[in-house]
Amino acid sequence: MNNSNYILNIFNKDREEITLEDIKSFFSTPQEETSVLEFKSGNVEIIDVYKEITAFF
Predict the structure, then answer these.
(1) Which pLDDT does position 19 carry in this prediction?
(2) How far apart are CA 57 and CA 15, in angstroms?
(3) Helix H segments across the chain?
(4) pLDDT per residue over 1-57, tens digit each?
(5) What is the SS3 string spanning 24-35?
(6) CA torsion, ordered 4, 5, 9, 15, to nearest 10 deg
(7) Cα separations (Å) of 29 from 9, 22, 25?
(8) Which listed residue, 17, 18, 31, 41, has the most CB atoms within 10 A of its CB?
């Protein structure tokens, strides 16, 4: 599966349509881990999450 398909599965949008608000909204609500998305434990600053997401794109 390529990155665009992961993004579509997670956000139900194409990569070009994702906004910062989409990302904030996604992480502001409880999410379950799936075969596509895995969460790491620990106290993480949101800026670090953005860096990881950017690397994913």
Answers:
(1) 92
(2) 8
(3) 3-11, 20-28, 46-56
(4) 666 688 888 889 998 999 989 988 888 888 888 877 777 666 777 777 777 777 666
(5) HHHHHCCCCCCC
(6) 20
(7) 17, 11, 7
(8) 18
